[in-house]
Write a structure and sequence with these properties.
The chain contains 10 helices and 8 strands. It has 303 residues and is of the alpha/beta class.
């Protein structure tokens, strides 16, 4: 049963963040472009206690078809970790990296310990997967060539991470050591009928936005089912061992179940942990015991 703190967050978060269903895709597009124009990607560290004392930061630049995207490398101060975690942030392919993403990554960096790489990428609706996929795959491959790598992502970033793992497998070179997928968005075709039934149960995500954001990220209807966009529909054999976490009060859980079912029919070693009644991306939420439990499971899996 979800905790009292989780219940309070379920009530408070949608109101504080003022989330709601879109009324018109074109107005939503214009709103997102205005918001993105005023919020360029930055490393927001204010939720990480004593960040400057605890971490060394290197800022790098990734270059793809749409130009340059910043990328940050966080290393716990005074360490030279053997493990690197490349974490792809979520946000419906339309939101830039935020303070909760940085807090989550910094906690893993400290507790594993690990070096954490936080890439950014050009966002929808102005950009599609084609503007970042090759760039991100090259970045992950460069870290894999240097040592042991965990490829991680949450929500939209989890779908990107799985798609990148498939691309690196198909390239035939070295692979990440592990995959960590937190409430990943892995089927942008929304082919699972349960998704519509969950629309009234999920207080945070909205099915109209899922349709619009998926169309923008795919770039064309023909690309919606491609593995680079909907990796749950792609070939799963030969992927690194993986852990996937998802709550059931989440519009993305039907896609996670589809992925788990397809993994069971392949040779992919996927551990799927489904948390009854919990919100989307609950392991990143603050101050709830369920997030602490997920963190312990994650550390056990990655050690």
């Amino acid at each position: 049963m979800p905790s009292l703190r989780h219940h309070l967050l379920t009530w408070a978060l949608p109101r504080v963040l003022k989330v709601r269903e879109l009324d018109d895709p074109e107005r939503e597009r214009e709103r997102l472009l205005r918001w993105q124009g005023g919020h360029p990607p930055t490393l927001a560290t204010h939720l990480v206690p004593r960040f400057e004392q605890r971490f060394d930061v290197e800022e790098r630049t990734l270059t793809g078809p749409a130009g340059a995207s910043p990328c940050w490398v966080l290393t716990p101060r005074g360490t030279d970790p053997e493990l690197t975690l490349v974490h792809v942030h979520g946000g419906g392919f339309t939101g830039t990296i935020g303070p909760w993403h940085v807090r989550y990554a910094a906690r893993l960096a400290r507790d594993l310990p690990a070096r954490v790489v936080l890439p950014t990428y050009p966002l929808a609706p102005a950009h599609s997967w084609r503007d970042s996929h090759g760039m991100l795959a090259d970045e992950v491959a460069s870290w894999v060539a240097r040592g042991r790598v965990v490829l991680s992502g949450e929500s939209a970033g989890g779908g990107i991470a799985l798609a990148l793992a498939q691309t690196l497998r198909d390239r035939g070179g070295p692979q990440p050591w592990r995959l960590l997928l937190t409430a990943p968005w892995v089927d942008l075709t929304t082919s699972t009928p349960d998704t519509k039934e969950l629309d009234a149960y999920d207080p945070w995500l909205f099915i109209g936005k899922l349709y619009a954001y998926a169309d923008w990220w795919a770039g064309s209807p023909e690309d919606l089912g491609r593995p680079e966009v909907s990796p749950a529909l792609g070939r799963l054999d030969g992927l690194p061992r993986a852990l996937m976490l998802c709550g059931t009060r989440d519009l993305l859980v039907p896609g996670c179940r589809l992925l788990a079912d397809r993994a069971a029919a392949s040779d992919w070693d996927l551990t799927y942990m489904e948390a009854p009644g919990l919100l989307h991306a609950y392991p990143l939420l603050p101050l709830i015991p369920e997030a602490r439990h997920a963190h312990r499971h994650t550390l056990e899996f990655l050690r």
